[in-house]
Amino acid sequence: MKSWRTFLWGLSSFVMSWWGLSLLTKNRSLPSPWQTAERLWSLRDVLLIHAGASLLRVIAALLLALIVGVPLGIFLGKSTMGGKLIGPLVYFLYPIPKVAFLPIFMLFFGLGNQSKVLLIFSVIVIQVIVSIRDAVNDIPEIYEEVLRNYTTKFWHRFYYVIWPALLPALFASLRVSIAISLASLFFAENYNTVYGIGYLILSAWAKMDYRQMMVGVVGIALMGYGLFAVIDWLERKTCHGRK
Protein backbone atom coordinates (compact mmCIF):
# COMPACT_ATOMS: atom_id res chain seq x y z
CA MET A 1 0.00 0.00 0.00
CA LYS A 2 2.83 2.37 0.91
CA SER A 3 4.51 1.77 -2.46
CA TRP A 4 1.32 2.76 -4.28
CA ARG A 5 1.05 5.97 -2.24
CA THR A 6 4.68 6.74 -3.07
CA PHE A 7 4.05 6.10 -6.77
CA LEU A 8 0.92 8.27 -6.85
CA TRP A 9 2.66 11.11 -5.01
CA GLY A 10 5.66 10.96 -7.35
CA LEU A 11 3.41 10.84 -10.43
CA SER A 12 1.15 13.69 -9.29
CA SER A 13 4.08 15.94 -8.33
CA PHE A 14 5.75 15.19 -11.68
CA VAL A 15 2.56 15.98 -13.60
CA MET A 16 1.85 19.19 -11.67
CA SER A 17 5.43 20.45 -12.16
CA TRP A 18 5.21 19.61 -15.85
CA TRP A 19 1.80 21.32 -16.17
CA GLY A 20 3.06 24.47 -14.42
CA LEU A 21 6.10 24.66 -16.69
CA SER A 22 3.92 24.14 -19.75
CA LEU A 23 1.63 27.00 -18.68
CA LEU A 24 4.57 29.31 -17.99
CA THR A 25 6.41 28.68 -21.26
CA LYS A 26 3.35 28.38 -23.54
CA ASN A 27 5.57 26.69 -26.08
CA ARG A 28 4.27 24.01 -28.45
CA SER A 29 7.51 22.06 -27.99
CA LEU A 30 6.35 21.35 -24.43
CA PRO A 31 2.78 20.01 -24.66
CA SER A 32 0.68 19.78 -21.53
CA PRO A 33 0.37 16.50 -19.60
CA TRP A 34 -3.22 16.14 -20.77
CA GLN A 35 -2.32 16.46 -24.45
CA THR A 36 0.50 13.95 -23.94
CA ALA A 37 -1.81 11.57 -22.06
CA GLU A 38 -4.23 11.64 -24.98
CA ARG A 39 -1.45 10.73 -27.42
CA LEU A 40 -0.07 8.11 -25.02
CA TRP A 41 -3.42 6.33 -24.92
CA SER A 42 -3.60 6.23 -28.71
CA LEU A 43 -0.02 4.89 -28.86
CA ARG A 44 -0.25 2.52 -25.89
CA ASP A 45 0.38 -0.66 -27.88
CA VAL A 46 3.26 0.89 -29.83
CA LEU A 47 4.76 2.30 -26.63
CA LEU A 48 4.75 -1.15 -25.02
CA ILE A 49 6.70 -2.58 -27.95
CA HIS A 50 9.28 0.22 -27.83
CA ALA A 51 9.55 0.01 -24.03
CA GLY A 52 9.99 -3.77 -24.19
CA ALA A 53 12.87 -3.47 -26.68
CA SER A 54 14.61 -0.82 -24.57
CA LEU A 55 14.04 -2.73 -21.34
CA LEU A 56 15.68 -5.86 -22.74
CA ARG A 57 18.73 -3.85 -23.81
CA VAL A 58 19.03 -2.14 -20.42
CA ILE A 59 18.63 -5.37 -18.44
CA ALA A 60 21.20 -7.16 -20.63
CA ALA A 61 23.69 -4.31 -20.14
CA LEU A 62 23.06 -4.22 -16.36
CA LEU A 63 23.58 -7.97 -15.99
CA LEU A 64 26.77 -7.82 -18.04
CA ALA A 65 28.03 -4.88 -15.95
CA LEU A 66 27.37 -6.84 -12.74
CA ILE A 67 29.05 -9.99 -14.07
CA VAL A 68 32.18 -8.01 -14.98
CA GLY A 69 32.08 -5.17 -12.45
CA VAL A 70 31.42 -6.98 -9.16
CA PRO A 71 34.29 -9.54 -9.37
CA LEU A 72 36.68 -6.91 -10.73
CA GLY A 73 35.69 -4.44 -8.02
CA ILE A 74 36.29 -7.08 -5.32
CA PHE A 75 39.64 -7.95 -6.88
CA LEU A 76 40.74 -4.31 -6.93
CA GLY A 77 39.62 -3.87 -3.33
CA LYS A 78 41.35 -6.99 -1.99
CA SER A 79 44.50 -7.05 -4.15
CA THR A 80 47.09 -4.37 -3.53
CA MET A 81 48.92 -5.23 -6.74
CA GLY A 82 45.67 -5.28 -8.72
CA GLY A 83 44.77 -1.85 -7.40
CA LYS A 84 48.16 -0.46 -8.40
CA LEU A 85 48.10 -1.99 -11.89
CA ILE A 86 44.43 -1.64 -12.91
CA GLY A 87 43.25 1.22 -10.69
CA PRO A 88 45.00 3.96 -12.74
CA LEU A 89 43.50 2.52 -15.94
CA VAL A 90 40.01 2.62 -14.41
CA TYR A 91 40.50 6.27 -13.39
CA PHE A 92 41.79 7.09 -16.86
CA LEU A 93 38.76 5.53 -18.56
CA TYR A 94 36.15 6.81 -16.09
CA PRO A 95 35.79 10.43 -17.36
CA ILE A 96 35.93 9.53 -21.06
CA PRO A 97 32.50 9.93 -22.69
CA LYS A 98 31.73 6.36 -23.74
CA VAL A 99 29.56 7.57 -26.60
CA ALA A 100 32.86 8.37 -28.32
CA PHE A 101 33.39 4.61 -28.62
CA LEU A 102 30.14 4.15 -30.58
CA PRO A 103 31.85 3.99 -34.03
CA ILE A 104 34.26 1.36 -32.65
CA PHE A 105 31.40 -0.77 -31.30
CA MET A 106 29.62 -0.49 -34.64
CA LEU A 107 32.73 -1.57 -36.56
CA PHE A 108 33.54 -4.53 -34.31
CA PHE A 109 30.05 -5.73 -33.35
CA GLY A 110 27.83 -4.53 -36.17
CA LEU A 111 24.76 -2.32 -36.12
CA GLY A 112 22.45 -4.67 -34.22
CA ASN A 113 21.55 -5.09 -30.58
CA GLN A 114 25.03 -6.28 -29.60
CA SER A 115 26.67 -2.89 -30.17
CA LYS A 116 23.77 -1.10 -28.44
CA VAL A 117 24.02 -3.30 -25.34
CA LEU A 118 27.81 -2.94 -25.26
CA LEU A 119 27.53 0.85 -25.49
CA ILE A 120 25.22 0.96 -22.45
CA PHE A 121 27.48 -1.56 -20.68
CA SER A 122 30.56 0.59 -21.29
CA VAL A 123 28.79 3.61 -19.80
CA ILE A 124 27.93 1.89 -16.49
CA VAL A 125 30.52 -0.83 -15.85
CA ILE A 126 33.28 1.42 -14.47
CA GLN A 127 30.80 3.04 -12.10
CA VAL A 128 29.97 -0.45 -10.77
CA ILE A 129 33.66 -1.37 -10.44
CA VAL A 130 34.52 1.78 -8.47
CA SER A 131 31.50 1.48 -6.15
CA ILE A 132 32.25 -2.17 -5.31
CA ARG A 133 35.96 -1.52 -4.86
CA ASP A 134 35.27 1.34 -2.43
CA ALA A 135 32.78 -0.79 -0.47
CA VAL A 136 35.34 -3.60 -0.14
CA ASN A 137 38.06 -1.15 0.92
CA ASP A 138 35.77 0.20 3.67
CA ILE A 139 35.39 -3.21 5.36
CA PRO A 140 37.15 -3.02 8.77
CA GLU A 141 40.15 -5.36 8.86
CA ILE A 142 39.09 -6.64 12.28
CA TYR A 143 36.12 -8.44 10.71
CA GLU A 144 38.34 -10.61 8.54
CA GLU A 145 40.82 -11.14 11.35
CA VAL A 146 38.04 -12.55 13.52
CA LEU A 147 36.81 -14.78 10.68
CA ARG A 148 40.34 -16.11 10.04
CA ASN A 149 40.24 -17.62 13.53
CA TYR A 150 37.51 -19.96 12.26
CA THR A 151 38.27 -20.42 8.54
CA THR A 152 40.77 -19.39 5.88
CA LYS A 153 38.62 -20.22 2.86
CA PHE A 154 37.92 -17.25 0.59
CA TRP A 155 34.35 -18.44 -0.03
CA HIS A 156 33.60 -18.12 3.69
CA ARG A 157 35.18 -14.65 3.80
CA PHE A 158 33.14 -13.66 0.77
CA TYR A 159 29.84 -15.02 2.10
CA TYR A 160 30.09 -13.81 5.71
CA VAL A 161 32.07 -10.55 5.36
CA ILE A 162 32.54 -9.21 1.84
CA TRP A 163 29.09 -9.86 0.35
CA PRO A 164 27.03 -8.35 3.23
CA ALA A 165 29.37 -5.33 3.31
CA LEU A 166 29.12 -4.56 -0.40
CA LEU A 167 25.35 -5.08 -0.79
CA PRO A 168 24.35 -1.48 0.10
CA ALA A 169 26.95 -0.14 -2.35
CA LEU A 170 25.76 -2.64 -4.97
CA PHE A 171 22.15 -1.46 -4.75
CA ALA A 172 23.20 2.19 -4.77
CA SER A 173 25.33 1.50 -7.82
CA LEU A 174 22.43 -0.27 -9.53
CA ARG A 175 20.19 2.76 -9.05
CA VAL A 176 22.77 5.09 -10.58
CA SER A 177 23.44 2.58 -13.38
CA ILE A 178 19.73 2.30 -14.22
CA ALA A 179 19.42 6.08 -14.52
CA ILE A 180 22.53 6.31 -16.71
CA SER A 181 21.40 3.34 -18.84
CA LEU A 182 18.01 4.89 -19.55
CA ALA A 183 19.66 8.20 -20.42
CA SER A 184 22.03 6.35 -22.76
CA LEU A 185 19.11 4.96 -24.80
CA PHE A 186 18.95 8.33 -26.55
CA PHE A 187 22.34 7.58 -28.14
CA ALA A 188 22.24 3.77 -28.28
CA GLU A 189 18.97 3.62 -30.19
CA ASN A 190 19.61 6.37 -32.75
CA TYR A 191 20.89 4.06 -35.49
CA ASN A 192 19.74 0.96 -37.37
CA THR A 193 16.65 0.28 -35.29
CA VAL A 194 12.92 0.83 -35.45
CA TYR A 195 12.17 -0.25 -31.88
CA GLY A 196 13.15 1.40 -28.62
CA ILE A 197 12.20 4.40 -26.50
CA GLY A 198 15.27 6.30 -27.68
CA TYR A 199 14.27 5.71 -31.29
CA LEU A 200 10.68 6.81 -30.54
CA ILE A 201 11.90 10.11 -29.03
CA LEU A 202 14.39 10.85 -31.81
CA SER A 203 11.90 9.97 -34.53
CA ALA A 204 9.24 12.22 -33.01
CA TRP A 205 11.77 15.03 -32.51
CA ALA A 206 12.83 14.83 -36.17
CA LYS A 207 9.17 15.09 -37.22
CA MET A 208 8.54 17.88 -34.67
CA ASP A 209 5.81 15.70 -33.17
CA TYR A 210 6.35 16.96 -29.64
CA ARG A 211 3.42 15.12 -28.13
CA GLN A 212 4.83 11.79 -29.25
CA MET A 213 8.28 12.89 -28.07
CA MET A 214 6.87 13.52 -24.59
CA VAL A 215 5.15 10.12 -24.71
CA GLY A 216 8.64 8.63 -25.05
CA VAL A 217 9.93 10.73 -22.15
CA VAL A 218 7.04 9.55 -19.96
CA GLY A 219 7.78 5.99 -21.05
CA ILE A 220 11.37 6.30 -19.83
CA ALA A 221 10.16 7.79 -16.54
CA LEU A 222 7.75 4.88 -15.99
CA MET A 223 10.42 2.32 -16.88
CA GLY A 224 12.83 3.95 -14.46
CA TYR A 225 10.31 4.01 -11.64
CA GLY A 226 9.49 0.35 -12.20
CA LEU A 227 13.15 -0.68 -12.18
CA PHE A 228 13.83 1.41 -9.05
CA ALA A 229 10.86 -0.26 -7.34
CA VAL A 230 12.31 -3.70 -8.16
CA ILE A 231 15.70 -2.66 -6.73
CA ASP A 232 14.01 -1.37 -3.55
CA TRP A 233 12.16 -4.68 -3.18
CA LEU A 234 15.35 -6.71 -3.67
CA GLU A 235 17.17 -4.53 -1.15
CA ARG A 236 14.44 -5.11 1.47
CA LYS A 237 14.65 -8.85 0.86
CA THR A 238 18.43 -9.16 1.00
CA CYS A 239 19.51 -6.44 3.43
CA HIS A 240 17.59 -7.68 6.46
CA GLY A 241 18.77 -4.88 8.68
CA ARG A 242 17.50 -2.17 6.31
CA LYS A 243 13.88 -1.06 5.99
Jot down its keywords.
single chain, 243 residues, mainly alpha, MetI-like fold
How many extended strands?
0
Overall pLDDT, averaged? 83
Stated plainly, the CATH topology of the largest domain is called: MetI-like fold
Number of helices: 10
CATH C-level class of the largest domain: Mainly Alpha
Contiguous runs where pLDDT drops below 50 for at least 5 residues: none
What structural class do helix, strand and pairing data support?
A: mainly alpha
- Please estimate the helix content: over 70%
Question: What is the H level of CATH, i.e. the homologous superfamily of the largest domain?
Answer: MetI-like
CA gyration radius, whole angstroms = 21 Å
CATH architecture of the largest domain: Orthogonal Bundle
What is the CA-CA span between the terminal residues?
15 Å
Q: Beta-strand percentage? A: under 5%
Order of helices and strands: HHHHHHHHHH
Number of domains: 2
Overall 3D form = globular
Description:
Helix 3 crosses helix 9 and helix 9 packs antiparallel against helix 10 (210-238). The protein has helices spanning 2-25, 33-42, 44-78, 80-93, 102-109, 113-137, 141-148, 154-188, 197-206, 210-238. It is mostly helical. The protein is built from ten helices and no strands. Helix content is 81%, strand content 0%. It has two domains: 1-30; 36-238, MetI-like fold (Orthogonal Bundle), CATH 1.10.3720.
